[in-house]
Amino acid sequence: MKRFLTLSIVLVAVFCLVLPAGAADKGVVKVKKGESVHIAYWFVISGPNTSLGMDTVRGIEIAIEDFGDKIKGHPIKLSGQDTGCGPEGGQAAATKIASDPTVVAAIGSNCSSAAKPGVPILWNAGIPTISPSNTAPYLTDPERLEGYAGYLRTCHNDTVQGSVAAEFVKKILKINSAATIHDGSVYAEQLAQVFANTFKGRLGKITAMEAVGPGDTDMRPVLTSIATGKPGLIYYPIFIAEGGHITRQAKEVSGLENTKLMGADGIFSPDFYKAAGEAAVGMFHTSPDFSAFPAVYKNFLKKHQEKYGKKPEAPFHAFAYDATMLILKAIEKVAVEGSDGSLTIDRMKLRDALYATKGYKGMTGTLECDQYGDCADPRIAVYQTKIENVKKGEMPTIPYWKPY
After folding, report:
1. Is 60 exceeded by the pLDDT of residue 379?
2. d(Cα 210, Cα 256) in Å, to the nearest integer?
3. Strands 360-362 and 233-235
4. What average pLDDT does this structure show over 336-358?
5. Does pLDDT of 229 surpass 50?
6. In the prediction, which pLDDT does 102 show?
7. Measured between alpha carbons, how far is 90 from 53 in angstroms, rounded to an integer?
8. 3-state SS of the chain?
């Protein structure tokens, strides 16, 4: 008996070791007859980065329509919370969603700084979340803290974006020195670091790695400091308001007259042109390669124009579409119909169904989710802004260069 008890304890211990963090039973969601299947998004829908959030909301709405607006006869309900694109807002939005037991799954966040504190809150409540635009490497890093076992993303990992940017600068522009600017967010800081590491690995010189704060407007001290190193290019993967100030003021700083400017997907929006004006002409951006999307993307753009009367405003609408479709299909797969017309959705089975995604033909390519939640078919291109882009308030759609 003693030997049996000892063996039982050992087996339990081993079983616990092989389970992923957060793999305990997360309960079920009961959807009564006539009630809706509730999906919640947590995006930035106020402030200078609103276009990033609204772009993804529209991707969700079109996906729900294309799915048929129902899951096994139950209407789909969509609600949302504003993250403000920051850690405090992310925590608050996730807390509100987690407090609602009717929420089956979430889509978000936009900004990685909102996701970092918010994701563990959601998963503690058993709510898996898929992000269409969190790109910070930390969020799917094997060494991340616990609480992310219910997190996935359909967008690229910035280990790809930063490397593409550095390759372009060194190989295509043949620039041998560069400086970076981040804003302290996990997105910007990690992307700038990937760029710097890759650039140095290609025997380029990083003359400075500077930082500004969210809400800063006077960028001249930082730019003046950068100018002393005489970089051939400044890479600043930050957001719209601060990016606009840097772009305008770089033209006014002695020593930077011929320095090229390069941003990333965080400022790949017509709202950035409003902030930067014609100072943006000639600058480069890294962003998803829309020209590589499957043919169905053209149908999406047509629906978007018909429904909203405009083109998409940021780069992540199609990734939001894919995130929504993955969630809806997974719910449809695991939901058990009752004889009374109800649905029972096991939260852990839903999470497992999402992670089991293999070979899914999505709007953005073929999605394959790995054990840490990276699902994207990452294709990053470089774009250059022309005067007509600024005047029309439209981002370029044809890549200047792509690495494949």
Report:
1. yes
2. 15
3. unpaired
4. 98
5. yes
6. 98
7. 13
8. CHHHHHHHHHHHHHHHHHCCCCCCCCCEEEECCCCCEEEEEEECCCCCCHHHHHHHHHHHHHHHHHHCCEECCEEEEEEEEECCCCHHHHHHHHHHHHCCCCEEEEEECCCHHHHHHHHHHHHHCCCCEEECCCCCHHHHCCCCCCCCCCEEECCCCHHHHHHHHHHHHHHHCCCCEEEEEECCCHHHHHHHHHHHHHHHHCCCEEEEEEECCCCCCCCHHHHHHHHCCCCCEEECCCCHHHHHHHHHHHCCCCCCCCCEEEECHHHCCHHHHHHHHHHHCCCEEEEECHHHCCCHHHHHHHHHHHHHCCCCCCCCHHHHHHHHHHHHHHHHHHCEECCCCCEEEEHHHHHHHHHCCCCEEECCEEECCCCCCECCCCCEEEEECCHHHHHHCCCCCCCCECCC
Note if the pTM is more than 0.90. yes
Contacts of 162 (CB under 8 A, 6+ apart): 190, 191, 192, 193, 194, 195, 197, 198, 237
Amino acid in the structure at residue 121: I
Identify the structural domains of the chain with CATH numbers, from first to last: 26-155+316-373 (3.40.50.2300), 159-288+381-392 (3.40.50.2300)
Q: What mean pLDDT value characterizes the chain? A: 94
